[in-house]
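Appendix B, example 12.
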Amino acid sequence: MFRLPAKPRFSDVARALARAAPALMPACRALLAPTLVGLSCIFLLAQDTPVIRVNVNLVHILATVKTTKGELVGSLGKDDFEVYDNGVKQEIAHFQRQTDQPLSVALMIDVSGSTAKDLGLEMDSATKFLHALLAEGRPDDRVALYSFDDTVRVEQPYSHNFTLLTNALRKIHGSAGTSLYDAITLVSQDLERRQGRKVMVVVSDGGETTSRYTSHDALKALQMADAVIYPVVVLPVMSDSGRNTGGENFFKWIAPGTGGRAFFPQLSSELDRTFSQIIDDLRTQYSIGFYPHNVPLTKDPWHKLEVIEKSGKLQVSARNGYYGESETYSAASKGTSVDGDIRTKKKKE
């Protein structure tokens, strides 16, 4: 059983403590030093419904910065950025350039029947991508290999071993429907357990036919994992009328919202260049974190994020929001789940 973790409701805790205050106060006075008593009393007598969001969880953001000509910029510092949570400016508590954090990459290969024609070329380009990523990255960088058609399979768990990954890559095969949303949702749950930077690279023709989860489930799982997605859509048919475009439109919508971008190579020969561009992005990422402070609670658990480069001359790509606390509940408490192992997940009946 795979579940997204739940967070405790701050409002429930505050109300419970407020109700218990009269009974707890004598014990507080007897057991605690005067200073701690004062602090405890203030907390216990808090109002039933908090107005300002107080959250000790660090919100992570991965960002890339480019010039107006599309050139990557990797030399900025903490003071070059501003972060806003629901319009309220936040203090940046964590800042690192990309080389300071290990990288976890989930490489996902669509092996549904519609991808059979280009599968060989995709494997060759993916092999070159793995070699460049592992040979020039950090020794603690890790890659996991997944395949999906109407089932999501772990072909190789997270590893830095190029031989293990490429051997698993060569064995990939499949021919069935495409559970794209399921694949993103389930692999995001695996990524959520990882530390450091988390990236998902999906090689697909953009089809979607057999998922149990929805596109919104997939987006939520990605955001909960703090993962950036780079879809590589290999178009089997160039005319819109001749192909399933649901997944393509989904990728165009979801990638920028996580700080990534979607690629649509028109020829299989463009795959090598596409993978090189992804690696360039990964080498120039910034890791930014903040503890939400003075953010008013609303009924919507979705918090809008904005990352700005102060000079206004550069363009920032970063996630556009996260699921946090709201007036009534924690969005994370409604985590999704799936029956069975990620290898053996069944089609929707």
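The domain at 53-349 is CATH 3.40.50.410 (Rossmann fold). The chain is about 30% helix and 25% strand.
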